[in-house]
Amino acid sequence: MDACVKGExxxxxxxxxxxxxxxxxxxxxxxxxxxxxxxVAQSIAFAQKVRRIAYQTAPNEAAEWQSLKLxxxxxxxxxxxxxxxxxxxxxxxxxxxxxxxxxVEWTKDTVHVRLHxxxxxxxxxxxxxxxxxxxxxxxxxxxxxxxxxxxxxAELVRLEEAMLRHADEHGYPFATVRLDxxxxxxxxxxxxxxxxxxxxxxxxxxxxxxxxxxxxxxVENWLRLYPGQPYSQSRLDQADALLRQQPFLVMSQPYKVxxxxxxxxxxxxxxxxxxxxxxxxxxxxxxxxxxxRLLLTGELNLRLRNLFASGGSFAFSWQQIxxxxxxxxxxxxxxxxxxxxxxxxxSFQLLREDTALQVQNGFLVLNQQAAVHYNLDxxxxxxxxxxxxxxxxxxxxxxxxxxxxxxQQTNTAWLSYRAFYQFNRLxxxxxxxxxxxxxxxxxxxxxxxxxxxxxxxxxxxxxxSSPQFSYxxxxxxxxxxxxxxxxxxxxxxxxxxxENLFQNDLFRLGGLNSLRGFNExxxxxxxxxxxxxxxxxxxxxxxxxxxxxxQAWLQTRIIGSRRTDAPSGVGAxxxxxxxxxxxxxxxxxxxxxxxxxxxxxxKIHFGLVSRF
Length: 612
Fold this sequence. Notes:
By secondary structure, the protein is mainly beta. The protein has 3 domains: 122-196, membrane protein fhac (Ubiquitin-like (UB roll)), CATH 3.10.20.310; 202-272, membrane protein fhac (Ubiquitin-like (UB roll)); 277-611, membrane protein fhac: a member of the omp85/tpsb transporter family (Porin), CATH 2.40.160. The protein has helices at residues 26-46, 62-66, 77-93, 133-139, 153-168, 216-223, 233-244, and strands spanning 2-6, 12-16, 52-56, 100-106, 110-116, 122-127, 149-150, 176-184, 189-196, 202-209, 249-251, 256-260, 263-272, 277-286, 294-307, 312-322, 325-334, 342-353, 363-375, 380-393, 412-426, 435-449, 465-480, 485-497, 507-509, 523-525, 527-540, 543-558, 561-565, 568-577, 582-591, 603-611. Strands 14-15-16-17-18-19-20-21-22-23-24-27-28-30-31-32 form a 16-stranded antiparallel β-barrel. The chain has a 4-stranded mixed sheet with strand order 7-6-9-8, covered by helices on one side. Strands 10, 11, 12 and 13 form a 4-stranded mixed sheet that branches. Helix 4 crosses helix 5. The two termini are 70 Å apart. Residues 1-21 and 397-404 have low confidence and may be disordered.
C-alpha cells in the first residue's frame, strides 16, 4: 500500500510497500495475462484500417444522405468516427434534429453503418418576442420568413449573432438572446425571441500606457472614443487597427477594457517607435556628356513624425539630378485637426528641368496641393483635395512673336479637384513580410494653355482651355515564402487624358522609387504601367538581401508626336541596420529603346537612413 510522507525538505512524496509477485497464485497470474490479451485484441480491432464503408438507409432518405457526399472509405476507424460526427452535425443544421447513427457493424474490411434521418423540422412560428423595432429592422428579421420554413440551426445562429453585434455597437456589450416559449408541435417548432439588453455601457477614459507620447485629448479625437459615448466594439477594433498602422508606435499587446459600473475604461499599451528619419543618398553614374567621367548626384530627405505628441508629420525632400535641375518636395499632415476626425494635408513640389538631352527648352513646374482625409476603419482612408499645377518655360518672361514656340513645351496652368483612396494592411510599416497595400488618386479640372496663340501646330489651332483628367494607382502585395524570405509583387499605372498635352504636362518615371537602372525622372509618359518582382531574404528582422526585376510599358502622347517604349531594370542590393542607421546599397542595370543594357550605364546608389 502507499503512504504520503513529509520529507526533510518539507515536500511530500509517496512511500511504497512493494508486494512480492511470487506470492500471487498461478491461476491469478494466468487470468491477468488473458485479460491483457483481450484488451490488446479489442484495441487492435478498433484501430484496424477500414477498407470500405457501406451505408444502409431508408429508401425515402437515400437522396438526402447522398447530397452530403458520404465518404466510402477511410484510412482508420478513428478518422471514420470523426467523419460521422461531423456528418450528423451537418444534418442537424439542415433541420433533421432527430438524425442519428442507429448501428455500426465492424467486419474485416468493411464497416456497415445504418443511418436514420428522421423528419424535417420546420418553423411554425418564430415570434419577435420582446425585441425592439430598431433591432429587428437592423438585423433584417421578419416573422413571415420563419413560417413553414426548414429549421436550420445556422440561420438561427446568424440571427442571434446579428442581434448581439447590434447590441455591441450601441452600448450593450452584455446583451443576451435566447429562445423562449419553445414548443415542439406535430408539424414543427414554434418559439419567441427573448432579448435582454443588460446594463448600458459608455466609454469613460482612454489611456495610452507605455513610452509613447500622445496627448489625451488628441487620442480621443483621433480614435473617436469620447467620454460618455455608447460603448462600441467596432470602434475599439478600428482604434486598435489605426494605432498599429502608425510607424511611431509599437503596440506590444492587445488593448484592455475594464468595465466598472456602467463605464468602460480602455487602455492601449504602446511604446514610442523610432520613426522620424533623416537620410542622404550619394550616387555615381557615368557622365553621358563627357566620356570617361563620373557624375555625382545627391538627395536629402527629412521626415518628422508625431510632431508635438499630436500625430502630425512633416517631410522635406531635396534632390539634385543634374546640374541646374533640382527637385524639392515639402509636405505636412495633421490628423484630428481642430478636434475633428479629419486629417489635413498640404504639400508643395518644385521641379526644374534644365536644357538636357530629352528637353528642348528648360521649364519649371510648381505643384501646390491641399486635401482632407478621413480614416474609415484603420485600414481604409478616403479624401478630397484641390491642386494647382503651373508649368513655365525658362524664357517665359521674353515676349515671343506668334507661331514661334514649338508644340512640345509651353506655359500651362491646371486647377483640379482630386479624390483619394488608400488601403494599408501590412504587418510592419518599415519591414513588411506579408499583407496588401493600395493607393489610388484621380483628378479632374480645366487646363489653361497660356500661349495658345503663339504655338505653331501646322496650321491648326489649340484651345486655350480644355478639360483634363488623370489618375494614378499602386498595388503592392507581400507574400511570405519561408520563415526568412518574402516576395514583393507591385504594379503601378497612370494616364492623362487631354486633347492638348505637352512634354511638361507628363508623368516622370525613372530612379529608385519607380524604375531602377535609370536616372531620376528619365522618362516622360502620358500612359504607363510598371510591374515589379522583388525577392527579399532577411537574416535579421531589420536587415535583408534583395534582388529585383522592373518591367514597364509607357507611351508619350504630345501634340504632333506619339511613341512607346518598354524599359526594364534588373539588379540587387542589401539593406542592413547599424548603430548609425540603416545602410542601403543598390546596383541596377536598365534597358530601353534608347539605351541598351550595358555595364557602362549601371547605377550604384549608397544611402544611410538614420531613425530617431
